[in-house]
Amino acid sequence: MEAVRLPDEAAFRAFRADCEAERGWLSRYSREGVAVWGQPPPPGGDAAVQRVKGRIHMPDVPAETAYDVLHDTEYRKKWDLNVIETHEIARLADNADVGYYAWKCPKPLKNRDVVTLRSWRALETSYVIINFSVKHPKYPPRKDLVRAVSLLTGYLIQSTGPKSCSLTYLAQVDPKGSLPKWVVNKSSQYLAPKVSSASSAQTSCLKYTSWKEEHNGDAKPWLHPEQNQLPYMALSDLSLQHASSLENIDESSLMEAKDEKGDTSGSEN
């Protein structure tokens, strides 16, 4: 059982550098303040385990608000259109916890879930939230979902002014399963929590302050650890989740769903 360690300062700074980097990333989309890039794996790697990065500029959202929105699990259930179920399981440190997240995949693929160690930190004028997959003894893979593996996923929130910020989402997720070529060709954004969620986040950030005032407005345990009521869990009770130890679900023969007009789509379950 491979030991789990909390990310250190160097890990957060390395993630921020990856979010800011341009070299090695291929542009997939750029319009109206939203950009998406892909980074194929090195030769000989698993074709499904590529990295995807998205960035959205939010001119009317302070960085602090975006950070709160990404942390607030109850609010996430309102704006994240991909979520099936999400909750924190236990805390590991003042800036780290272990949690569960299940999300929708495009039909006819099976939906996915992950158990991850999440950690966060403020760095000068930016915030970083990162996660990676772990094994939790009380959260084994479910029969109705495919257990995916987050190799490294997270957010970089950077202040661009008193009331503006940019939000960068970077994900490297092994979706598991023997996948059809149409999924692999359309990039891993179909099998990671979607970059398009950032657009939903922007709209929701504008509504967050008024929502929070009516929903336990003073409770922000990600900023005030003394408010955290989750049970403590020892790091030694967790182990790293490797893709090789999970069952491969054969989805290679599935055809892409079509809408009523006959167009293929990544429609969600």
TrEMBL record:
The record's annotation in Gene3D superfamilies points to:
3.30.530.20
Q: Which GO terms describe its biological process?
A: lipid transport
Q: Where is this region: Disordered?
A: 246-269
* Top-level taxon in the UniProt lineage: Eukaryota
Q: What is its main location?
A: other
Claim: Cytoplasm is one of the keywords in the record: yes
SMART domains, per database record: START (SM00234)
Location in or out of the cell: Cell projection, Cilium, Flagellum; Cytoplasm; Membrane
Q: Which UniProt keywords apply?
A: Acetylation, Cell projection, Cilium, Cytoplasm, Flagellum, Lipid transport, Lipid-binding, Membrane, Phosphoprotein, Transport
Residue span(s) of domain START: 22-185
One Pfam family name from the record? START
The name on file for this protein is START domain-containing protein 10
